[in-house]
Each structure stands twice: as C-alpha cells, then as structure tokens.
Design brief:
It is built from twelve helices and eight strands. It is α/β, with parallel strands linked by helices and about 300 residues long.
Amino acid sequence: MPQISANGLTFAYDERGEGEPLLLVMGLGTQMIAWREAFMDQLVELGFRVIRFDNRDVGLSSRIDADPPDRRAVIGQLVLGRRPDAAYLLADMADDAAGLLDALDIDSAHIVGASMGGMITQQLAIDHPKRVRSICSIMSNTGDRRNGRIAPALLLKGRKLLKARPETAVEDAVAVMRLISGPHFDEAEVRVFSEESVERAYDPAGQARQTAAIAASPDRTEALAHVRSPALVIHGMADPLVRFSGGVATARAVPGARMLAFPDMAHDLPRPRWGEMTAAIAANAARAAVPVAASAAH
C-alpha cells in the first residue's frame, strides 16, 4: 500500500478513478479499509477520483509519541462535557487531511467523513475553506456536547468492551458493531472485516489518543456558520452512538446544508443504502458550482 509524507507524518492511502478528487475520512480507531471498495467503486462510477487514507494513530499511518490516556476516563469526561488533556486535537487531524491533499498535488477536493471523520471534515472546511469543494458529514455532530450524545443504554452495555484485549479483539469488534449497527447488520461480513482490520494493524493506544482528541476539541457550531461549501449531512435515525440530534444540529449549523436521514441506519454504513448515499454525495458535489445563497433558497 502506498505511503506519503504530509504534515510531518506518514500516511497510508490509496486511490482509484479519475475526475474531481473526493477524499474519504474515516472515524474513531477505524482504518481506511472501512470505506469498502464497492462503496468507492460507486463513487468512481459517478465520476470521482476517490482517495481514502488511514488517519494518524490508526492503520498503517504514523503513531504519535505520547502516552495513551485511559479511554474509560476520557469517555466519562466526554459524556460529562469536560475537556481532557490531549496529545492533539481534531484541528491537527484536519491539518493532516490538508497536508495529504498538498502531497498529492490536489488544490481542493470534495470531502466525505464518517463519525469522527465527519468532525474532521467539518474542521477542514472551517480551517482550510479553499481546499474544500463540498462536504458530507455522516453520523457525526458539531461537538456542542448537547446534541448527538451517546445513548445511556449503549454506554452501560459497552463498558465491558472498552478494555483492550488482543486475544479477543475480533470478537470485541463484532460485539461493538452489533450494539451500534441498525437492522442491516451482517455478522459474517463484520467478522471478516474485523479479522482483516486486526491482522492489518491493532493499536488501542492510538484509538485512546483519538478519543481524547474528540473530547478535547471545541464546539464547532459557531464556526460552521461561516462555512460556504455545499454541505450534506447523512445520519441514521436509529444511531445510539451519535444520536440523530447530532446530525440535525450539524445541518442547522451550516448555511444551506441538506440532510438525508435513514430510519434503518444506526452508526453504520448499511450496504442497501449505498446507492442513495453516493447519489446524494454526487448531487451535493454538483452544488459546488452554485452559490450557497442561491442553493439555500430551494
């Protein structure tokens, strides 16, 4: 897998297709291979040059030299609305994405992010507006600590899965996905993906540092009001990890944003909805040539 230097780090990435560049940003502790190839192929067929990469501290990209925080404590602080110390913030991860575009000689791109990747996508549009043609924030929130909070029932059920256990990493990953996925959950498919992920790279310390980055980063709501890139928000109405209110708050925060909600989606990317998702991403990208003020009137 190719690697490239950007923002002082090394990132694993791959790409396919030609046309307008579209950067996929994945979520907390999740490797770029979670952007499944068939999903990317649909975007390629819609005319995009599709790029995916491993964020810092995950997969085959650089690790940050910092002691990992206690993940249980960080999640507790996140739930309580407190901001812990962190080795880096989401803004640094947005700088990574901008640096990756530099390294690939791409002046601007459409950005699509899932979960934490949605947060990074929002921050990229805030900090590097000229690099962003359009944004799509999937199953994410604005960081306002009021909307998109984890469901209490999930927090109780998931506590026992927070301890990193290499010998049960695959089973733990499947158990987590079972808890946060919607009715299209396919255990066999998730198990294969989890095995692939653990074999490729397993680093709970990196995930803990990413969790701290989310918890320590400021509310983006006010800054999102100044984003002028066409925005699409996709969210599952059954999401227990980042509840639906997080998507609603994101759509309200960005001028002219459009929202696509699925009643049969939770905190996952259900395969039966891929066609609608990719079509909506393409339609939002097409709005990049239309002034936001005009598009907001429709």
